[in-house]
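Problem: given the chain below (168 residues), write out its structure.
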Amino acid sequence: MRNLEAKFRLADRAGAHRAALVIGFAPRATLIQRDTFFTVAEGKLKLREEPSGAALIHYRRAHAGSLELSDYAIVPIPDPAATRAMLAAALGVLAEVRKSRVLLMRRNVRLHLDRVDGLGDFGEIEAVLGAGESAEAYRAEVAELLAALAIVPDRLIDVSYFELARRA
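Solution.
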């Protein structure tokens, strides 16, 4: 699977939520997530745990102009505690990120309004690409959402939350 994404710091999470509703995004869920990142040779590997279930996610990102283009795979995990312990022993834990995420959607574009423990509030846009679709087809839609949220391109963040935590 692939997506085009943009991540940014939010000064006003509630205002971003209101602005997204105005341009047609609909609330889908509020999620409590624990992401455990493991040391791997290629890309990033994380175990995402939520009250509703868990998944192992492997992804690689490439810069696509001011945005990120990601290739990713997701596998459901029935026993996250045992999986986390096994991967920690085999690969080593790189970092852990805990967050509360409000998920809003418009067609195949997701907007995440995140409150990340120890870091603050962030937004993340993910335009999920269908088979054979180009990232270019979604640049205008991502730009529209960034403009509605008053996010200028130089405020985009091109690293993971755990990498931001390391810099702090």
